[in-house]
Queue: 2 jobs
Job 1
Amino acid sequence: MEEIKKAAEIIRKGGLVAFPTETVYGLGADALNPRAVARIFEVKNRPRLDPIIVHIADFSEVERLWSYVDERAEKLMEKFWPGPLTLALPKSDIVPDIVTAGLSILAIRMPSHPVALSLIKEAETPIAAPSANLFGYLSPTSAEHVKEQFGNKIELILDGGRCPVGIESTVISLAEKKPLLLRPGGVALEEIENIVGKVEIAPPASARPQSPGQLSRHYSPRTPVKILVGKGEREGKKVGLLVFTPRASGEGEYEVVETLSSKGDLVEAAANLFLCLHRLDRKGLDVIYAEPVPEVGLGRAIMDRLRKAAGTLD
Ligand code: TXA
Ligand code: MG
C-alpha cells in the first residue's frame, strides 16, 4: 500500500510508473498532463502517431473523457469492465491531443487488476498507459520483463507478479455505425458479438492510413519468428519451437521447446504466450518456429500476436 501511495504521488507530479494489469504491465502517466504523456513516447521510443489507452477506476470517468457515451458502450462496459476490453469513442476537450495522437477518438479501459485500480484511485487522475516495453518489442507480463527494458529509466516499477490474462486488451471502436475490432485481445470476439451483434474486423493498418497503431511487425522478439508450416527448415541452425500443446515426439530435434498449454486450453495459452517468447528470445537462437493455434476465442489474439511477431500480418 505504501508503494502504491508513492507511485500515485509520482503520477500526480508528472512522472512515469510501470504497473501490473491483468493483461500486461503498463507504463503509466497522468493522462491529463501532456508533458507527462510525452515522456512515455520518449522512454518507449514510440512514434508520436500511435495513440495511447487511458485507464480509469470509476465508471463515471467516461462522461468527462468521451464527448458522449452510447448504448452499446454502456452494455459492453457493464458486461466486461473491469477487464481486458478497451472501447473507443470521440474524445472530450479535456483530453490532450498527444494521448490520441491527434485522432478524434479516445480508447479507454477499466483494468481489473487490484494494484492498477488502487493506483488509479490513489492518483485521482486517469492514467494513460501503453504496454511497458520498448516500441515493437514483446509485451511484459512480469516486473522482471519491465526491469530488463527500462531499468532505471523510469521512476518506479510496481511488482504485482505475473499478469493473469497475459495478452493485451481487445480494442473496439464504437465511433462508427458498426462496432469495429481494432485489435483482438483478452476478451474473445464471440463474447462481444453476443452483446452488440456483428463486429467488423479492421483491415490492416497499411490499408487504413488514419489509424496507424497497428503496424505489421510488432510484439516481436529479437530472434526471427516463423509460423510453422509443415516441418520447418532446420539445417545447421539453432531452432527453438513454440507449441500449443505438448508434442508426442520430435521435440528432441529442437534446441529448446516451450509449450503454451499442457491441456490445449487457449486461455492458458494466451497467459503463457509472452512469457514463452521472452524465454525463447534469451536462448541465442537463429529462429523461433511457432506452431499455429486454432483461431477461435483467445486463439484469434494469439495468432494476431504471432503473425505480428513474424511480420507477416499484412
Ligand atoms: O491490455 C492493454 O491494452 C495494455 C494494458 C497496459 O492496458 N495496453 C496496451 O497499450 O496494450 P498499447 O499502447 O501497447 O496498445 C494499444 C493499442 C495500439 O494498437 C493503439 O494503436 C490502439 O490500442 N489505440 C489506442 N488508442 C487508440 C485510439 N484512440 N484509436 C485507435 N486505436 C487506439
Ligand atoms: Mg503495446
Job 2
Amino acid sequence: MLPPAKSTLAAETDALFNFINVASLIFLVGITIAIIYFSWKYRRRSDQDVTPVIAHNSKLEITWSVIPLVLVLIVFGRGFTGYIDNITPPDDAYEIRAVGKTWLWEFHYPNGHVSINELHVPAGRPVKLVMSSDDVIHSLYIPDFRVKMDVLPNRYTQLWFEAIEPGESTIFCAEYCGTAHSNMIATTYVYEEEEFVTWLASAGSADDSMDPVELGQELITRNACATCHSSDGTDLIGPTFQGLWQSEVVMQDGETVIADENYLRESILEPNARIVDGYDPVMPTFAGTLNDRQIEAIIEYIKTLE
Ligand code: CUA
C-alpha cells in the first residue's frame, strides 16, 4: 500500500500511519456492529410500547471517554517525537543546497558542482537539504523517504533524510506551481559512500572532452530545457528550438530580433529581458548554473536544429 521505506525515518512514520489506520478500522467495524445490533434490539414491538428511561451510566461513560483519550495521546506523543526527529537534522549531516525553479530542481554540492533534476547522495549518511525557490512556492517531496517540505522564495527551509541503501527514488513537486508543475520531477541517486565521493570528484569533468554540439544536446536534457522548449517544432510552454537560429523573432512590444548568439545568450541568462510574443515570462535564469562553455555548447546545438 505504501511506497518502499528507503530512509531511516520511514519506519516510524509508517508505524504511526498504520496504528492510526488500524485503530480507525477497529472503531469503524465495532461502531457499525453496535449500531446494527442496537437497531435490532430496540426495534418497536407491539407487546412493549414504553421504552425504559435510562438517565446515565457512569461506568460506561468513563470507559468510552478514557479509551479514545489514551489512543489520541499515543498518536500525539508519537507524532510529536516523530516530528521533532523529522525537523532536526543531525549535526554531521552532509549539506546540499536545493533550488526550486519553474519547472526544475537544482542541486548545489559543497564542491561547487550543480546538477539539475538529479540529486546524488551517499547511503548510510544523513543528508540535509537547505532549500529555497527562485520564483513561486514549490514543495520537495520524496515519497520513498517519507519527507516533504515547502520550498519558498526569500526564505530557506530544511529537510533531512538518511537513505538506507543504494538505489533510485523519485522526487516530486507537491505544490501546484503553474503550467509544467507535473513535469517538475527529479531522481535521487543513492550511492555507497566511496562511490559517491568518486562521482562528486568526477562530476562535470566528462563535459570537457565532449563535442560542443553533443554537449549542448546533453545539457538541454540535463537542465530540463526540454520541459518547455521542443527541438522538433512542437509548441510547448516556450518557443521551439527548431528553426530558431538566425530567424526573426517578434517580441511582445513589437520589436523584432534576429536569433543570433547574443540573443540566445541573453535568453539563457536574462530570460525576462525580452519576451517573445505569445509566451509568458516564466523562464528562470541559468546565470550561475551554466558556465560560458556550456552556454556556447547549447548555442552550437540550437544552430544544428534547422
Ligand atoms: Cu514546482 Cu509544483
